[in-house]
Amino acid sequence: MSMKNNKLVLADRPNPSISADIFQLAEEQVTPLSDGQFLIKNHYLSVDPAMRGWVTDMPNYIPPVEIGAVMRSFAVGEVVESKHPDYTVGEFVYGLFGWQEFAVSDGSDIERKVNPSDGPLSINLHVLGMTGATAWFGLTEIGDPQEGETVVVSTAAGAVGSMVGQIAKARGCRTVGITGSDEKARRCLEEFGYDAVLNYKTATDLVGDLVKACPDGVDVYFDNVSGPITDAVMSLFNIGARMTICGVIGIAPDQVNGPRVSRTMLVKRARMQGFLIFDHMHRLSEAVSGLQPLYQAGKLSFSEEIFEGLSSAPKGLESLLAGTNQGKVIVRL
Amino acid sequence: MSMKNNKLVLADRPNPSISADIFQLAEEQVTPLSDGQFLIKNHYLSVDPAMRGWVTDMPNYIPPVEIGAVMRSFAVGEVVESKHPDYTVGEFVYGLFGWQEFAVSDGSDIERKVNPSDGPLSINLHVLGMTGATAWFGLTEIGDPQEGETVVVSTAAGAVGSMVGQIAKARGCRTVGITGSDEKARRCLEEFGYDAVLNYKTATDLVGDLVKACPDGVDVYFDNVSGPITDAVMSLFNIGARMTICGVIGIAPDQVNGPRVSRTMLVKRARMQGFLIFDHMHRLSEAVSGLQPLYQAGKLSFSEEIFEGLSSAPKGLESLLAGTNQGKVIVRL
C-alpha cells in the first residue's frame, strides 16, 4: 500500500518575528511500518505559545525544530495501522505527532491514550492535555491553593489562565483575573467564573484596583507574564504567598530591570517557583484524573478557535501570537 | 527575700544608626513569684543582627521593643526559684529572657530546656539555638541539598552562614562561601571547611570567579544578602536550583532595582523562598536533634566573641553591626 502524507516543515527561522511563510507544505510517501511501529492519522493539531521558542535556534528546554523538519506539535490521532502489541487500530492517542496528516510512531512519542467517551476529541489537546496539565500541576503543586484563599491569575482568559482560574474556583478560592481587553474581562466573569477581573491596559491604578479586587490580599499568584503586572501583584502578597512562574512574556525589552523581590519574599516568607510543563508530561494521566471530573461536572469552560485544514496551521499560530484568537487554537484535519 | 535585677532598657530609637547610648542601665526589685512562675538567672545573653529591626518602630514580623522596656534578647539561664510544676531549680533554659540578670517566666517564653552535658552552656545561644536552627531549617527544608550538589552561602563566615556551610559539607555537598574580607575567607577555608571561597569586595569578576568555584553550577543558594552578589550567583543556577532568602542586607539604597528574576526562575525551574526563623522556633528541638550529633562529631566549628558583663551588651551590638566581631557575639553575666 502506498500512502501520501502531507506535512508542514519549518523552512526558515523567524526574521525576527514569526510569520506564516516560515512554514512550507511538503508531501511524502508514508514508509511501511516495521515491527513495533504503528501509524497515526491525526485528527486535531495543537497550536501553542511554546512554538515561539521551538522555531528559533536559541538555547531552550527542548532542541529547536531543525530547518526542513516537520513542525513539532501536539496532536490527537487515531491508530490506523499497527505492528505494535500495545496499540490497536481504532485507538486514539495524544502526543507530539507534528503538523502533518500521518505520523509513524514506536510509542515513545505517545503522551497517553485518549478515551473518546471523555468528550469531543479536541479537548484532549487542551482541557485534558498539555494546557490543562500546565494549569493543574502549576496551580495545585506549586500554588497549593486552600479553600478561602485569594488566587490571582495573569493572562486570565488564556488557555492556561482560564483553566487555572476555574480549578482554583472549584477549590473554593476567591479568583481574580488580570487580562488585556474588555472582551476578555467579560469572558473571565461570565465564562470562567472569576470573582473579579482587571484590564491592565486600561487601569490607571493597577495596585489600587488590585487592593479592591483582593480585600484579603494575595495568597497564590499564577504568573504568565512577569514585569510590572507582577510587581503590582507581589505588593499585595500575604505571609506565606506562593507564586508559580509559568511565563515571562510581560518583560518588555526596556523592563529587564525591576524592583528586587528578595525583601518582599523574605518579609512575606513567600515562595516562587518556575514551572515548565515538559518536566511533568510523564505524569499527564495524574492531571487528567484531577481534571476529568471537573470537566464532567461542567466546571471547566473553554472555547476553541478551529482552523480548518493542515495548511491553515501557520495562520492559526500567527493569530495566537498576535493575541487575536478567541480561545484555544486548534487545527482540524 | 528582696532581690535586685539589673537590666538594659531601650531608651531611644536609632537616630538613624544604632549606637550603644540608645540603651540605659536600670535597676529594679524582682517581684515575688506567683503560682505558675519561676525565676531565671541569666548566664549568657545573645546579640543578634535581628536586633537591628527590634529597636526601630518600623513594621516588622514582631512588635518593636517599647521605649523603656527591657531589650529583647535570647538568653541561657538557670532556674533559681520555682512555683511552676514543670521547671525545677537547677534546670537550664533557653528563651527570650532579655538583656537583664534575672527574668520571671511562666514558661511561655521558654524555647527549650537546655542539657548542660551537650557542651558549654553558651552554644545553646548559637550552634544549638536560634543561629543553628536558622541554618538547619533554612538549608535542609528549603535548600534540600543532596550529596554531590554545589551549595553557595553568602556571609559565609557569619554565625548563620558558617553553620550552613558546615551542615552542607556534612551532607556531602561542595560548599562555596562568599565573604567580605581575606581574614574571613581564610576562616571559611580553615575553620568551616568550605571547598572554595570568594571575597566579593576584592573580586574584579565575581561571576567569573564563581564559575571557577562552581564548575558544576549552583544547586542550592543560601542567601543572607540579596543585591548584586545574588544576581551573580543566580546566573549560575542549575535546573531545579533552590534558594533560601534569609537576609537582604546587600540591597544598597541605590540598588532597590535589579535584574528581574522571573526568566531565570522559569528557565531553570528554580525555587526561592523567604525564611524567618521565628516561624520555626516552636520546632527548635527538631533542629537540635539534627545539629547535636554534628556538633558532637566535631563537624560544627564556631567562634565566640565574649563581652563581659551586662553593661557591655550595647558595645557587643555595635561591634556586630559594624562587622568587626570575630564570631558569635555573646554577653557573659
TrEMBL record, chains A, B:
GO terms for molecular function: oxidoreductase activity, acting on the CH-CH group of donors, NAD or NADP as acceptor. The keyword Oxidoreductase applies. Signal peptide: none annotated. InterPro entries: ADH-like_C, ADH_N_2, ER, GroES-like_sf, MDR_fam, NAD(P)-bd_dom_sf. Residues 19-331 form the Enoyl reductase (ER) domain. The keyword Oxidoreductase applies. SUPFAM superfamilies: GroES-like, NAD(P)-binding Rossmann-fold domains. Keywords: Oxidoreductase. This is Alcohol dehydrogenase. It comes from Kiloniella litopenaei.
